[in-house]
Design goal:
Pfam families: HTH_3, ThiN. This is Thiamine-phosphate synthase family protein. The chain is an alpha+beta fold and about 300 residues long. The protein folds into two domains: about 120 residues, no CATH class; about 170 residues, Class II aldolase/adducin N-terminal domain (L-fuculose-1-phosphate Aldolase, 3-Layer(aba) Sandwich), CATH 3.40.225.10. The chain is about 50% helix and about 10% strand. Strands 5-2-1-6-9-8-7 form a seven-stranded mixed β-sheet, with helices on both faces. A two-stranded antiparallel sheet has the order 3-4. Helix 11 links the parallel strand 7 and strand 8. Helix 1 runs antiparallel to helix 2, helix 5 packs antiparallel against helix 6 and helix 6 crosses helix 7.
């Protein structure tokens, strides 16, 4: 595991400081003055100026970095720029390199798995970024699955087709935006069998129910299916949840939309079966752990 901040410290900072130290010395500043501007010791300045610090050749060749160094050196040497102003400019530049510049490229080379997140893969510090949202969903689902694994009676609630716990990204518009347990959660001789860690795009049915509910006006981000039993629905309603039935033999999205039109705040959907269709109860929730805790209390 390699954090992009490590690249800032190990690659960017020595290269940037050495370039700026050289540029300031070229403008007639003493080692003491350079040390004061950079906030480092004079001996460190000497190492930078005399090439005793390893530098990243790709950063050295970056045109934007060279331009930044020249601008900061000129401003600091002339007194037109304060150290705080220089720091702010450098910080902004570093964040840009982290998002879509050379630091992002270096990070991808260190952590190739980040490439799967496409153009948003390096917006890690942005709370709205795809990479951060996706990892939060997966972490949330893992917590939810652990709750189910530690619920002794859960295997008795698993339907013949298996259960699944799903959670989606905030702006999900397709199955690929919904994470779930691959292969479903099964009852294996009275124990909860979870075949693998959650992944995106591996649930078709429960994910489709969640997406249909969201299309029908629900703000739920997660869903968990269990076997249907009138007593289960009654227990959920007695616990304060709103349950609504939908037609199992109709098209899923309009069937759920019709059900939610009558009960927009429903957090339990159920269908009592049909030709070749097993009756199922779906618990809707804000996240995976919440859905798991609802079922745990049954």
């Amino acid at each position: 595991m390699k954090f992009i901040e490590e690249l800032v410290v190990e690659e960017f900072l020595p290269t940037f400081r050495s370039m700026l130290a050289e540029a300031l010395r070229e403008r007639g500043l003493t080692q003491s003055e350079v040390a004061e501007h950079l906030g480092i010791s004079q001996s460190a300045v000497s190492k930078y100026v005399h090439g005793e610090v390893e530098r990243n050749d790709r950063l050295l060749g970056d045109r934007r970095l060279r331009e930044l160094v020249e601008r900061l050196a000129e401003g600091l040497a002339s007194g037109e720029m304060s150290r705080v102003q220089a720091l702010v400019e450098a910080e902004v530049f570093v964040r840009r390199l982290e998002r879509d510049g050379l630091l992002a490229q270096l990070h991808e080379e260190e952590m190739p798995g980040l490439a799967e997140y496409g153009d948003d893969r390096f917006a890690i510090h942005d709370p709205e970024s795809t990479v951060r949202a996706a990892e939060e969903v997966l972490a949330s689902l893992r917590r939810g699955v652990r709750i189910l694994e530690n619920t002794d009676d859960f295997p008795g609630l698993i339907p013949a087709v298996g259960s699944n716990l799903v959670e989606c990204l905030p702006d999900a518009d397709g199955i690929e935006d919904v994470a779930a347990v691959p292969g479903r959660i099964l009852d294996l001789e009275g124990t909860t069998a979870v075949p693998a860690d959650p992944e995106f795009g591996v649930s078709e049915h429960v994910a489709s129910v969640l997406l249909a509910a969201r299309a029908g006006g629900s703000d739920a981000r997660a869903a968990l299916n269990v076997r249907y039993d009138a007593e289960i629905v009654e227990a959920l309603t007695d616990a304060g949840y709103t349950a609504v039935e939908f037609d199992a033999e109709g098209d899923l999205e309009p069937a759920i939309a019709d059900a939610l039109a009558e009960s927009p705040d429903a957090d339990v959907l159920y269908q009592t079966g049909g030709f070749g269709v097993e009756p199922i109860v779906y618990v809707l929730a804000t996240d995976g752990p919440t859905a798991a805790r609802v079922v745990r209390e049954l």
